[in-house]
Amino acid sequence: MATTPQPKPKVHISNQAVTLQNWYKHINWLSTILVILVPAYGLYAVRYVPLQRPTAIWALVYYFLTGFGITGGYHRLWSHRCYSARAPLRYVLAFVGAGAVQGSIRFWSSKHRAHHRWTDTEKDPYDALKGFFYSHLGWMLFNQDPKKIGRTDISDLDADPLVIWQHKNYGKTLLMAAWIFPMCVAGLGWGDWWGGLVYAGIIRACFVQQATFCVNSLAHWIGEQPFDDRRTPRDHFLTAIVTLGEGYHNFHHEFPSDYRNAIIWYQYDPTKWVIYALSKIGLTYNLKLFRDNEIQKGRLQQLQKKLDKRRAKLDWGIPLSQLPVISWDDFQSQCASGEAVLVAIAGVIHDISEFVNEHPGGKALIKSAIGKDATALFNGGVYEHSNAAHNLLSTMRVGVLRGGQEVEVWKQETGIPLKDAAGKLIVRAGEQVTRIQPLTMTASAA
């Protein structure tokens, strides 16, 4: 009995090489029309449609309204549930958000949640590791394999009647909010129908789109990472200005449930200010703030991580636990024979041969301590040496003196819990093992 050959599994177009025969299949034509072709027509129409002052003002106002529809509505309200909003405000945000021409609430929020859950991985819809262009525009212009995009829970969005209504009627809502409404305001208001469509509609939407896309690209490319550097999100004031306050992206990825993007009063975050102002008139409520204690811990940990990296590049001397143990007789015999130029301080033996001629106090004084225990002399008996002197001395360690405080020294090193990210002891200023409280009687005798 002959077996029926099984059909080959269909390979998604994104996993196929681009050829002259299939190039058009790689393009997401709907996104390309809305993000590239329509704005291109608007830029072309500028040559023939003069810009009137009232239209320019209206386009700017509607830019901020639709921009807030994305930052305050799509992003902070629906994607992250950073706060709650009353019904009138929710309707307005759903409308002006559609006017930004970036998809429905359900589409936008599901992609954004996937971005947070799978940041910088193959499952990230706009993975920054694939390049600036891909994270800014490419992920929309070219078809993606839906099986490769990370899944997230959007059951709350599916349970929201407004979200579902807008999603099902997004085409009509977009047409009205993005182009017809701004055109009608300008046309009925001061007779500039074409200007309303071109400037307050098409050109305005283009600017809102590009500003929002910068959150996916620019915010992962320039700036600092004050809370975590394991992933690409960054904080930068320039990105904040471009994106209506969404530029403090490193903070946002660490604390996504916080209704703020910027936590310092002078940082630019108009979305936060509007949400807060609306709470004073009852349109927003339940504004979520991440615990300041955890925010400060994250900042401090990242600062310590940076310090650890800088510390690792410096010579702190051989750790005491790795030094050989030398008896007092061997220590003295090496010095007497001229085999080594050694001095013992706080139970640690140091080779000072290359420093004798550089000693600020002169050769005679330092030579007088060779082959001796110079703990008291170094710690105030002759001179209370500086922090820099103790640090320099640590780089000259060659051994630990048997019976000369080595047990106490090791206890000091293993008993202090302050260690860096690599598990190495952090030596604070004034805590070097060679720094001993001066013994009054010994100091006087010296």
Automatic annotation (TrEMBL):
GO cellular component: endoplasmic reticulum membrane
Enzyme class: oxidoreductase
Reaction(s) catalysed (UniProt annotation): octadecanoyl-CoA + 2 Fe(II)-[cytochrome b5] + O2 + 2 H(+) = (9Z)-octadecenoyl-CoA + 2 Fe(III)-[cytochrome b5] + 2 H2O
EC number: 1.14.19.1
SMART domains: Cyt-b5
Subcellular location: Membrane
Cofactor binding annotation: Expected to bind 2 Fe(2+) ions per subunit.
Example GO biological process: unsaturated fatty acid biosynthetic process
GO molecular function, one term: stearoyl-CoA 9-desaturase activity
Keyword Transmembrane helix carried by entry: yes
Swiss-Prot/TrEMBL cofactor(s): Fe(2+)
Start and end residues of each Cytochrome b5 heme-binding domain: 323-402
Keyword Calcium in annotation: no
Keyword annotations from UniProtKB, A to Z: Electron transport, Fatty acid biosynthesis, Fatty acid metabolism, Heme, Iron, Lipid biosynthesis, Lipid metabolism, Membrane, Metal-binding, Oxidoreductase, Transmembrane, Transmembrane helix, Transport
Chief location bin: membrane
Transmembrane intervals: 27-44, 56-77, 89-108, 174-191
Membrane topology annotation: Multi-pass membrane protein
CDD domains named in the record: Delta9-FADS-like
PROSITE patterns in the record: CYTOCHROME_B5_1 (PS00191), CYTOCHROME_B5_2 (PS50255), FATTY_ACID_DESATUR_1 (PS00476)
Entry similarity comment: Belongs to the fatty acid desaturase type 1 family.
Role of this protein: Stearoyl-CoA desaturase that utilizes O(2) and electrons from reduced cytochrome b5 to introduce the first double bond into saturated fatty acyl-CoA substrates.
This protein's name: Acyl-CoA desaturase
Source species of the chain: Lentithecium fluviatile CBS 122367
